[in-house]
Design brief:
about 300 residues; alpha+beta; Aminopeptidase; 8 helices; 11 strands; about 30% helix; about 35% strand; N-acetyltransferase domain-containing protein; GNAT_dom
């Protein structure tokens, strides 16, 4: 049986630069925590003697209609990527065959050439470019006065703002990993949830929402979703909300705000570039058909 600390150390050592995976934690303790929560049970680890040479971790979740998606950590490889990736993808294919899988998601560094080329052997639904941004909570945007906004925590399913949050989430993020049902569940269990959900108001009227995920192990606040109705976007609303998050969570011990944004979302890319965020890495989100059919070569 694989030692969780050994597996976490292997992942942590490779989860940088070219083998970075957007789903895995950024520190050893963070990775150990996730593996200990059951993720190690859905993994394949390759060995050469007693040394780990490859690993794949799968996080399977329901997407409705009796179907599931798989988010993949890695696959991570060592000195022989072709051989190691062949074994790891075979395991992934067998896991997909044993369930009703809609899509398989890989989220890797744009510099991970061996993995990107190997994944291209399978029929892909889409390949998207994502940028990972972050900013220190001590460095909020210039437009830091948010006195004209009300940012209201939503912690009860009976909240008058929940239906509007769910409606706007559906309009803005169809197919999002965090579903409408997930949002409701997180609010129902708000005292134990790592998510914080806020309604954004101006003049008492709802104009949008924010969803963040706290990671106390790393001190990073993950900005999962920020969505403002068109009529509420004037006057630097987005910059004010970033300033609100920076000030609020800095007081709770969080040192950075991090997020991923699709390269297709040009307005969001311009916003984060303009508001002091650093572009830390470029990632590829590769979506493979759940049946893992071979790619059609033209």
């Amino acid at each position: 049986m694989t030692n969780i600390r050994d597996l976490a150390a292997f992942i942590c050592a490779r989860n940088t630069e070219s083998q970075q995976c957007g789903y895995a934690g950024s520190t050893l303790d963070d990775i150990i925590h996730d593996l200990s929560e059951g993720m190690a049970e859905s993994s394949l680890v390759l060995y050469e003697g007693e040394e780990i040479t490859g690993a794949i971790i799968m996080d399977t979740y329901g997407v409705g209609g009796g179907q599931e998606d798989i988010e993949v950590w890695g696959p991570y490889y060592s000195a022989h990527p072709e051989d190691e990736l062949r074994l790891l993808f075979r395991y992934l294919s067998e896991a997909a065959d044993s369930a009703t899988i809609r899509y398989i998601h890989l989220f890797t560094s744009a510099n991970n050439t061996p993995l990107i080329e190997y994944a291209a052997r399978y029929r892909t639904e889409k390949v998207r470019t994502h940028y990972h941004y972050s900013i220190e909570t001590a460095l909020p945007p210039n437009s830091s006065s948010y006195a004209d906004l009300s940012v209201v925590p939503v912690t009860e399913p009976e909240s008058e703002w929940l239906d509007q949050i769910i409606e706007l989430h559906y309009q803005g993020f169809q197919g999002a990993t965090l579903t409408q049902e997930d949002i409701t569940a997180e609010i129902e269990d708000s005292s134990m949830s790592e998510y914080d959900i806020y309604a954004v108001l101006t003049g008492g009227s709802f104009i949008g929402y924010i969803i963040v995920r706290r990671n106390a192990l790393t001190g990073i606040l993950h900005l999962e979703y920020i969505c403002i109705r068109p009529e509420g976007r004037s006057g630097g609303t987005g910059s004010k909300l970033i300033a609100y998050l920076a000030e609020t969570y800095r007081g709770l011990g969080y040192t950075r705000i991090g997020l991923d944004v699709s390269g297709e979302n040009e307005a969001a890319v311009r916003f984060y570039d303009k508001n002091g965020f650093s572009r830390d890495s470029v990632m590829k989100h590769i979506i493979i058909n759940g049946r893992m059919q071979p790619a059609v070569m033209v």
